Amino acid sequence: MTISEPFPLPVTSNTDLDQETHKWRRLSTASATGATGTPETDEIAARIVTGLPGNFVWGAATSAYQIEGAVTEDGRGLSIWDTFARTPGKTRNGESGAVAVDHYHRYREDIAMMAGLGLAAYRFSVAWPRVMPTGSGAVNRAGLAFYDRLVDELLAAGLDPWLTLYHWDLPQPLQDLGGWASRETCYRFAYYADQVATALGDRVKHWSTLNEPWCSAFEGHLTGRHAPGVQSAHAAVRSVHHLLLGHALGVEALRARGAGDVGITLNLIPAESPEDSPAAQDAVRLVDGQTIRLWLDPLLRGCYPEDVVADFAKVGAELPVEPGDLLRIAAPVDWIGVNYYAPHIVVPGPDPDPAPMPFVAGDDLTRVRSTDDVTALGWPIRPRSYAALLRRLDADYPGTSWYIHENGAAFLDEPAADGEVPDPGRLRYVAQHLDVVRDVVGDGVDVRGYFVWSLLDNFEWSEGYKMRFGVVHVDFDTLVRTPKSSALWYSRLIRDHRAVNGTA
Q: For the whole model, what pTM was predicted?
């Protein structure tokens, strides 16, 4: 199905696209000597190549507000992140995704780059306000046409589209009516899901309803660090249930349109403590409950954890469950997407940090700043925590299939004098965490694919543009893309894995 577009954008010719793809392929092939890695990461690569199955999915991920830009073009409406970023003091230097990295106009170049690097799959999100500027009502055909073109271009380049319906950019008119704290938003989301599936479901085979609802609920409604910037335990807890109910209604809409591969993407953050006291154990329990069990238990067991419900009750907050909700939320999905960056390290006692704690009833716990190897954000690099998480998920929720939908690290990468962009810290991070995936898959954990976060340097939410997560460097002044050493290493790994497994 092709959507007619009344104001088509100029596009690059197929010949130019082929040339772009070959350019990126030459760059990635140039890494075959191993110059982009180290003896450690090359040894890891050799293990991964032979240790993961031939049908393992290799991809990269992005999100709409972080890369698209063009926030006022082709009828796109206002999102909560547009509003939040325009509010003084909410983002670093008042930065926003208004331009981001201009993927809206440069998507063909970016797809050629992905194809040249050898990716098999691309995980992206649809901007709800681009498709439905007010959050409901008539579809904005020009906005939806962008995703129609994007999907066609991905398929033509041999890339499998993995579509996320919601990556935090709620239409502002829905927020004005209560946002995710209101049950009505669940039904608006289901209608939006139906409309996107109607337009793209003939070609898109993999659908994620929500990305990281923990962030939407707790960082958006408890700490206020993310849009919409609310600070209310009651709003946060109500949002938890409505996000999950919205997921359930979205799944129903997708299934009704024939979508056969549907899941949800969660940031499952393990909790740890350097102490072993009963108080420390309870701190870990509280954090674990709200970051992992609060989401997986209703999705996969049909109930909320009793201890988490009791924690909410301590502050007078209650999950707004209505009859039949939990049965709908527990409807089968095909997989769970796992986003992992670092663990929460906590100890009991009041946190001297004045920033609000992202846990309900978490006043008596402190987040520990690790002295381990850390990223530019100060997040500890602990592959052992990742391994423990994946093994724990397999043990606690048997029979579930998992995809790693985000995994990566922020560093302050700078181009070298020769124009190349070395990022040894990220390369090592990705290699070590992929080695963990290989190890747990070898022990029977059903992890089926890996999407590095992120394809491109982009707008990093409240952190603005300082923190770089991309395996591809973006000059934010010229918007020129340059693959970093991690991208070249990842490209070579994918190519070698295909060659060894006969899938090249």
A: 0.94
